[in-house]
Amino acid sequence: MSKSFAKKYVSLSSSSSSSSLFSCCRDDDDEPSHKWHVYATGHSLGGALATLFALELSSSKLAKCGAISLTMYNFGSPRVGNKKFADVYNEVINYFTEDF
Known about the structure:
Elements: H1 3-13, H2 16-22, E1 36-43, H3 45-58, H4 61-64, E2 68-75, H5 83-92
Parallel strand pairs: 1-2
């Protein structure tokens, strides 16, 4: 993964606005208090950041406890990671592609 993508993503994901999304399901909850459907989307650098966010969110406890479902639309993103990253991403994210 590009260091610049990782640095930008970390700066955005540690902001206070992202913490409200991640607080909807506490570690001791059996059932989530809210159910969210999240749309991650972006173009260019935003598409790269949406890719990282989609992988993190889909791998989170929130997704595993059923609090979050995710749809990701990506428009013209640069390559975010190497083949190993792509393999992990494709394993975690249910996806389909559509050519326009």
